[in-house]
Every structure is written in structure tokens, then in C-alpha cells.
């Protein structure tokens, strides 16, 4: 924030920094930003919840981001997501109760050339096979 | 022996040994393309400024600073007929002139890299592979409109693009291409990067400005246009990544070479992200006026897996589905608009006969409903109601009057929404209703002709089952009753329609009915 000179328009960048450092944005962070940047807390909360990229909940140990872009969707990521939702009884955007796996969706990874694409713990997996993907996630969780 | 050598007819024609011979698929993929924005694709190193300069990089900028006045640059752009590549196709020169003429102490130039359309990735690729070209285009634009601050607005979901861009800007700054008194002239420009945070609506220009100012990206009413009152109420030029990357070529090769490509109203080339059910997908740059069929069949190599070409989804969630019957439509702004689609940012997703149009509409509605910023009532609630109706159709609970309601809501949403998102959100529904109405009617009756909507289909094992039990081993719910070497059967009440049996069957005996 010092780098940005405490200007009100630094809010989005500051939120990015908070998320990068802590993995998510909690209430304390919002209050701190509001004071430091002299912006009403309501506005800080509004911005943080408006953008999909910011998360207000801690993430699980492993994350699985399923791409829901057009190309991936028609090649079967809907199927992959469905299978994962059924297997772990969570919905997209939720984390398993034991904090092991967060299941997320992305608008489009811009990786349509290797559709269907899924990001498992930061690694992009192209040409994901709907029939065998659950096994892959299971393997990751065991690690 | 010598005689034989001296006689021409004893030789194979030399051109057969040309080092440029390409395999047939490569040749088909490349021969129809013209590379302007993606010039030297695959050979330029995005981190090597020297290499870019060797490939005539920054030649256009030098030429502009040394021998053109800003007004002359804008005239050149006007002559080339360049139109914004972000989707709406506004004439770039008109916008540039407006910014130049608007009074303001400080002017801004913004590069819109908030590429949000699912299925489109050309901005990402241009920023990652040709950062210097985009920067050069922006400097020229800034010089032409008299701006001294330039801002890149790039999605946070593109970490590589951001990394490349930061490095490229540092290199340019170190070599005197940006900063104070660039290239020995008295012109100065400074660059910044603003990261997006995952909101589709940020791609709309007034919403983008709000986001750069650190607010929620909600569009505001126009006029005043950003060209008059943009960032911090100063005149601001906003163009798409692709538009800027075309600028250096136009000024280097001359406006007339650019205007020579394309159709009467749409000039030059357009980068498309060809994806979906084609044999060869990828990023392509084609001259305007090429037909959709040529792109799909020649460049894309036709539809994969021997399936039938059904439609092309052009322009993402704002665009429409062009049926195979209209595939001879040339790609230009007006022609696409006349059939209900839009150019958009350039996603081309090919659909085959296993794709259900109602399901595709549902997908796009889900997207727009999610991304609607919530400012206009018709967009906020209308999209929700439309999604409910289409979901109902997909679940086999459709009612006969639903199609009429969909049409009514679409018209309302188009009329009563502020920005491009709401105005164009009904397009996928409207075009699929126009060209694939029978599919909607079939859903009302409880059938899904493409076999995609789970509630409306059943799986059945046909008589040529060899009794290998593979399907039963794959079934997650144990719905397949199997005795080795006998015809297997599926218990419909247990089946969850996961499609595993069908993809596992070696004899293709599992059918969707």
C-alpha cells in the first residue's frame, strides 16, 4: 500500500496482495484496508465481494479448478464437475468439511486448445478424461 | 552419364525439394491465414527486445515520431479502415480523433486486456507472445491522441501475460522506448499495469474505468463517452489488445495495404480462437470476408470424429449460433450482425450433432446471469428468469408457453439494459430459437434430439453386446446387470446417466435413446 501511496484506487491491488499473502481475505483485512485507504468499510466489502477472483473463505489443502469455458464445456467439463460434486458431496465453490479439497470453477482458462482443461493444485491438466478424472483427484488427496 | 546430367528431362523438377514443403494438414491450416497481429508467430522471443527490433520492430514508431504529425497518423488509421477488435467494431480513427480534440490537462490510453468471453484466448496469446507489438501500438496511439499516461488492464487470471508484460515494459524503459523523451524526441509516456479481478463486465469500457479507479466495475451511462470524460474524468482512449497490435503494421506497410484486405466495410484481418469439435483448433488470423465454412473445413480440417457439422457459436455469450446452413456467410461485422450473431472478440466454437442447442443456451445464460453486475433490473432478474425457463426445458419440465415467454423476456432485456452485456445476453437464445426452434419444441415434448439433456434420455444396450462386462465394471452405481457372454441390461431407475458405460464399451453397443 505504501508503494501505491495510500490512494483510494489502490484498493483492488491491495486486495490482490492480501489474497496472495494469506490465501483469502478475512474481515480483519477488510477493516484494516478500509482504515488505511480511508474508504468506507461497506465499499471495501462491496468491491471484495463483487469480483469473483477474491475469496472470503479459506481454501482447502488441495484445489481443483474446473474450466467452464465454452470449448471445455462442450467437451465434457460439466461431466467432470458433476462427478466430482457427487463423489465429495460438495458443490462448486465449496470446500470439503475436512478442508482437504476445494472445488472451484473458472470462467475460461484461455486454454481452449487443450479442452477439456482442469487445474489441479496449480497444474493445468489438458484433455482431461471425464471417466477417469475422479481417480486422479483421489490420488492427489492421498499425497 | 554426363549426357544424362546435362539433359534437363533426366532431372526431377527442383521445386519438389523445396525446403518449404509442408505436410498437407499444416499447409491447409496455414495457407489461408494472413499474419499481421500475429506476425512472426512462433519465431519471436517475447523476452528479446533486440530480436523484435531486427524484425522491423519499433520501425513504425520511429517513422511516426520523425515524419508524421499526430493528425497525419489518425488520417492514416482512418484510411486503413481499422475498426475496434473488441467486439462492437467502432471505427478506431473516429475514437482517436475525439480523444485528441477533447480538452484535458492529462489524457490516458488504456489497453483493454480483460478478455472474458469463454472460448476466446487471442488477447492472452498476443500479450504473451508479442508484448512489444502491443506496446508499440499503444505508444503510437498515445502519441496520436496526445496522451502521456498509458495503462494496461489485464485479467488477474492471466499470470503469464502479466509476467511477460512487466518484463517487456522494463526492457522498453531501459532502452528508451518508454519514459521521458522517447527515441530522442520531446514526447514522453509512462506505462502502468492494472490487474483485473475476475469480473466479465469489466471488459465494458465504462466498467473498466470504474475498476481502474478501484471501484466495483459497474457500467455507467454514455454519453459522456470515455473519449470525453474517462479515467478520473479526463479524455481516455480505450482499445482492445488486438486493435493496438494491428497499428504498427498499418503505419509501417501503409494504410492502403491494410485496406486492400477484407470486405467493403470490414478491413484487414481478424484473429479467431478456433475451438470446439474441430480437428485442428487453435489461434488463427484470417482476412475479413472469409466464410465460416472455409474456416471450419479448410483451416480447422472439418468436424472431428466423423461427426456432422451442426453450428458455430460466434462471439461468445454475446454472440449467436450460426447454423451449418448459413456457414457460407462471410466473416465481417455487418454480415454477422445481419444473421443475429456478432463478431465479438473472436471466439469460434464449433458444435456437432451431439450438442444440444437448448443446453448451449442454458450454458450461456448461466454465464451472463452470473456475470450481470446487477445494475439494470431486466438484466439482473430477466437473465435469472430466462435461465430458470431454459433449465426447466432441459429437465423435461417445460411448458408450451415457455418459448413465448423466453422471446418476450429477450426483447425486454435488449431494450432495457444499459451496457453491452445485458443488451446482447439474449443473443444465444434468440439465434438458437430462430435456427433451431424444433429442438426447443422437442424439449417441451420431453425429447432431447441431441441426446445431451440427462433428464430426457435413457441408456440402452443394443443386441450386438458381446457380454464383456466392461460397462458393468465402469458403472459407478451398479445399474448394469451383467452375466458374462450374455446381453447386458441397464436398470433405468438406478442409472445416473454418467455416460461411463458408453465411453467404455469396446463394441459401441451402448446407445442413448
Verbal overview:
- The complex is a heterodimer of chains A (about 140) and B (about 525).
- Chain A has about 140 residues and is α+β, with helices and mostly antiparallel strands.
- Chain A has two domains: about 10-50, no CATH class; about 60-140, Glutaredoxin, CATH 3.40.30.
- In chain A, about 45% of the residues lie in helices and about 15% in strands.
- In chain A, strand 1 (about 60-65), helix 4 and strand 2 (about 100-105) form a beta-alpha-beta unit.
- In chain A, helix 1 (about 10-20) packs antiparallel against helix 2 (about 25-35) and helix 2 (about 25-35) packs across helix 3.
- In chain A, about 35% of the residues are buried.
- The mean pLDDT of chain A is about 80.
- Chain B is globular and about 85 Å long.
- Chain B contains 22 helices and 13 strands.
- By secondary structure, chain B is of the alpha/beta class.
- The chains are: A alpha+beta (about 140), B alpha/beta (about 525).
- Chains A and B meet through helix 1, helix 3 and helix 4 of A and strand 5, strand 9, helix 15 and helix 22 of B.
Write down the overall geometry of chain A.
Answer: elongated
Task: Specify the structural class of chain A.
Answer: alpha+beta
In helices, the fraction of residues of chain A equals 40-55%
Characterize the quaternary organization of these chains: heterodimer
Structural class by helix and strand composition of chain B: alpha/beta
Give the CATH H-level superfamily of the largest domain in chain B.
NADH-ubiquinone oxidoreductase 51kDa subunit
* Number of H- or I-type helical stretches of chain A: 5
Instruction: Please give the CATH architecture of the largest domain in chain B.
Output: 3-Layer(aba) Sandwich
The CATH architecture of the largest domain in chain A is 3-Layer(aba) Sandwich
User: How many helices of chain B in DSSP terms?
Assistant: 22
Mean pLDDT of chain B: 86
Rounded to an integer in angstroms, the radius of gyration calculated over CA atoms of chain B is 27 Å
Cα Rg of chain A: 17 Å
Flag low-confidence runs of chain A.
Answer: none
User: N-to-C terminal Cα separation of chain B, in Å?
Assistant: 72 Å
Question: Under CATH, the topology of the largest domain in chain A is which?
Answer: Glutaredoxin
For the largest sheet of chain B, list the strands in their spatial order. 6-5-9-7-8
Helix content of chain B: 40-55%
